[in-house]
Design brief:
Elements: H1 2-29, H2 33-63
Helix pairs in contact: 1-2
Length: 64
């Protein structure tokens, strides 16, 4: 279970980085403000998911 969560945390953090880069590029181009706003909202959601996974891993480590 811990290995699954560790992989999930890494994937979530990578997804945050990708969406962050896409959002910054979209904002820099300045074409579609709605799209860049949606990307930044997605980034916040993915960050929350990554933090949740990390908290679960922390609690599992404390329980050992």
């Amino acid at each position: 279970m811990a290995a699954f969560l560790q992989i999930g945390a890494m994937l979530a953090m990578a997804a945050v980085a990708v969406v962050l880069i896409l959002g910054i590029v979209s904002m820099a181009r300045g074409k579609d403000a709605r799209k860049s706003n949606k990307l930044m909202q997605l980034r916040v959601l993915l960050q929350a998911l990554a933090l949740l996974i990390l908290f679960i891993l922390s609690f599992m480590a404390l329980g050992k």
